[in-house]
Amino acid sequence: MSGKYASVPYGYEPPPASRKGTLIFYDSFEHVTDEQLERATVAADTRSFTQLVLYPLHESTVKRMSKDGVQAYYKREDRLHDWRRDHMEFHIKVEGLEGKRKKYTPIDSALRHLTSEYPAPHFLYMTVEMANLFASFDSFKDWITKLRLLIDGQTDSLHPKLEQYAHRWEWAD
Q: Which domain holds residue 65?
């Protein structure tokens, strides 16, 4: 305890927290624009999330997931830190788990870490391409019941599992 005592009236209960949960932006951040980052920030603010967590993927994770080539992890992470410094009025954190591991991290391991580390409820903010990739994994069925998705962008081609669980996700505004 701090050692400082405060006097409160009898029966006082602190007001309930007005912000709850965590919005997690899971992506490689190779092709994510500043406008998409702005939309994620606005979504976190309008939906009253406690914080926005940016989760950049390591090169080996991206290579296994999509066979795309990406910049080095530290370059993409530095770009996110620079962008975050320009938006200090919001509570934004860049998660560095993949930078510490420096190897392939399955989405299951990443989501287990994120859900244990940050307050619930958990929402995943994904691009359409990443959401389609996530839906193609076997573990999608287990995770979609534990968290919800916000998908950035519009498209007609959605993975059949996303269409099956349409009540668990929505388009980001």
A: 25-120
